[in-house]
Amino acid sequence: MRKNGKLLKSKAKFTRDELADLLEGLAGRIRDGQLTLGEGAGQVEMDLPRTFTVKMEVADTGKRVLERELELEIEWPVEADGTPLERPDSRSGFTVA
Q1: Which domain holds residue 26?
Q2: Alpha carbon of 62 to those of 25, 57, 59, 65, 90: distances in Å?
Q3: Residue 76 pLDDT
Q4: Under a CB-based contact definition with an 8 Å cutoff, are residues 42 and 80 in contact?
Q5: One matching Pfam family, short form (predicted)?
Q6: C or N terminus of the chain, fewer CB within 10 Å?
Q7: Do residues 79 and 90 both lie within one domain?
Q8: Is the pLDDT of residue 3 over 80?
Q9: Phi first, then psi: what are they for 95, rounded to 5°?
């Protein structure tokens, strides 16, 4: 049985165009239903469900320098082996414009 915990953690700087490319690549992988993050021994491969729970938060943070933070959290239930569990479709709330 798999324990809870971080499977991958990463931080990097991107230009606006690089970030857009990353998000477009992520969107394509989500549409395909399979996603691989990272490289080599540390990579995480995931099969994705048809529906997700998504949380979005925008906040101003920082003590010395004020920073704006956009956090997008995507969740879905999985079996112990990582196989996604499907939930009933539940659409709600926010848009991106």
Answers
A1: 14-48
A2: 30, 16, 10, 6, 34
A3: 92
A4: no
A5: Amphi-Trp
A6: C
A7: yes
A8: no
A9: -130, 165
